[in-house]
Amino acid sequence: MSHLELRQITYVYDATGREVAALQDVTFGVAASEFVCVVGRSGCGKTTLLNILAGFLGPTRGEVRIGGKPVTGKGLDRGIVFQDFAQLFPWRTAQRNVEFGLEMKGVPRAERVETARSFLRLVGLEAFAGAYPHELSGGMQQRAAIARALAYNPSVLLMDEPFAALDALTRDEMQRFLVDVWRETRKTVVYVTHNVAEAVYLADRIVVLTPHPGTVRAEVKVPLPRPRDPLSGEFVEAQRRVLELLR
Amino acid sequence: MSRASARSLLGALASVVAAAAVWEVFARSGVFSTALTPSLAAIVPALGRMIADGTLVLHTLYTLYRILLGLALAAVIGIPIGMLMGRFGWAERFVLPLVSVLSPIPSLAWVPIFILWFGLGDAASIALVLYAATFPFILNTWTGVRSVNRIWIRAAEAMGAERGRLFRKIVLPGALPFVIAGARQAFARSWIAVVGGEMIAATNWGLGWVIFDSKEYLNADVMLATLLVIGLLGLGFERLVFQLMERRTVGRWGMVRTART
Q1: B interface mutation test: which of A53, A80, A104 has the most B CBs within 10 A?
Q2: Pick among 3.10.450.50, 3.20.20.140, 3.40.190.170, 3.40.50.300: CATH of A1-77+195-247
């Protein structure tokens, strides 16, 4: 039984009088605490898919369910991390950024401060609680954004290429870090990326999306034990299989 | 004193000395009579006399009272209107045509009619400042609300912020760089309004009145000394109010680069 279910999600938009299907009958499930990567080239509708999961867009047809209940609109049962570093609020310190969701939830101040502090500790930013976003590096800003999305305890974490704008070394480090955080928190994760190596490193299962219209080409299980070695034969083999499906 | 602030002071000093030198050369060149272009040797003592007899302080206080009250009223009126316009389509459709018609009219064009309405004195000058300063507040706040980064709104909405809370916690701070820019612009326009207003509508007090009154007695030194005071007040406000305001908020948050002074 899947915690998160996508049932025949179709999204049609109007491009100057012509109807274009960005997504066509996208169906897959994500088990509780499973890490699923959605992989596809740009224009395959993967960001549209994430926006539908987040509730920013309503699907033209089809349905999203979380814990068996249909999703309508935005909700605190989902946390979202974007690619853009600018997603943090510049006028709030790291600590106050992480508190935001709790504030919206109506959590009392003392508890809020405590919870936010513990999530900053989880992402290794405790020492930077009082720093403003512009004083943090790109990687640190994304860590803070992850802490912010986790702090109000959503059951599903949605991530839209959160490390795509980082340099390669920081990206590797952040991927290792994300696996640690995921093991610690056991969230259900949907992670969108165009980077196949990243998907193979992170995912339990990879959903391969092909464009025009965006449809599920295949689902690939990645049964490799963690931490994974990107230079091992099995890793490269898994990568090759996904790349072939994208061709 | 830090190296940066020493450099900033040095830069300010250099530009002041250069401007004074240019003026001295012009004043002593004989293009105009020295009564019309007094040298610094005449301007500085005139300034000293006005300070010594206490009139300068009173004139300045009158002018500041008019400008600050008008400016405060303009902020109280203009900022909320700009926010409403940014947030609600109906407010934008209703206010924008009015602003577009009223804002290009120079505040000084209103002086005669304001004298008829408010008589000579403080009220006319304050009303002029209010008129001049309200539109910069409205237009900049409106622009600020519209330029708030979409991703902040999305992130906040995803965390359950909606309507009022979204506006208070995201749109307001997000628009602040523009609101401060509006305050600067409003302040500059207020000086034009207050000095012009005082020249015509004031009775006996105010820096604008001093300049206009000195013309009767051919006191070019007093006129220039007063102009200098206005300039210095502008400098003081820029450094002590606007730059400080910026450093403490949007500069601190990395939303704008603060002035290198």
Answers
A1: A104
A2: 3.40.50.300
Q: Half-sphere exposure of residue B159, counting CA atoms within 13 Å on the CB side?
A: 34
Q: B194, B66 in Cβ contact below 8 A?
A: yes
Of B159, B160, B253, the CB nearest to A134: B253
Distance between CA atoms of A85 and B251, rounded to whole angstroms?
A: 18
- In chain B the domains, ranked by start, together with CATH numbers, are 54-251 (1.10.3720.10)
Determine, for residues B156 and A152 on separate chains, whether the beta-carbon distance falls below 8 Å: no
Q: What is the pLDDT along chain B (261 residues), one digit of tens a residue?
A: 678 778 888 988 999 899 999 999 999 888 888 888 999 989 999 999 999 999 999 999 999 999 999 999 999 999 999 999 999 999 999 999 999 999 999 999 999 999 999 998 899 999 999 999 999 999 999 999 999 999 999 999 999 998 889 999 999 999 999 999 999 999 999 999 999 999 988 778 999 999 999 988 889 999 999 999 999 999 899 889 999 999 999 999 999 887 776
Which candidate in A88, A91, A150, A161 is best for mutational testing of the B interface (most B CBs within 10 A)? Answer: A91
ipTM over 0.90 threshold: yes
Chain A contacts of B158, Cβ < 8 Å? 54-56, 74, 78-80
Q: pLDDT tens digits, residue range A14-43?
A: 888 888 889 999 999 999 999 999 999 888
What chain B residue is nearest to A53 in terms of C-alpha separation?
B158
Chain B residues 36-65 within an 8 A CB cutoff of chain A: none
Q: What is the pTM of this model?
A: 0.87
Cβ pairs A/B, distance under 8 A: 66
Helix runs in B53-162, H state only: 55-87, 89-102, 111-118, 122-146, 150-158
**Residue B7 half-sphere exposure, CB side, CA atoms within 13 Å?**
5
Per-residue H/E/C for chain A: CCCEEEEEEEEEEEECCEEEEEEEEEEEEECCCCEEEEECCCCCCHHHHHHHHHCCCCCCEEEEEECCEECCCCCCCEEEECCCHHHCCCCCCHHHHHHHHHHHHCCCHHHHHHHHHHHHHHCCCHHHCCCCHHHCCHHHHHHHHHHHHHHCCCCEEEEECCCCCCCHHHHHHHHHHHHHHHHHHCCEEEEEECCHHHHHHHCCEEEEEECCCEEEEEEEECCCCCCCCCCCHHHHHHHHHHHHHHC
Nearest to A162 by CA among A51, A54, A84, A53: A84
Q: How far apart are CA B114 and CA B126, in angstroms?
A: 10
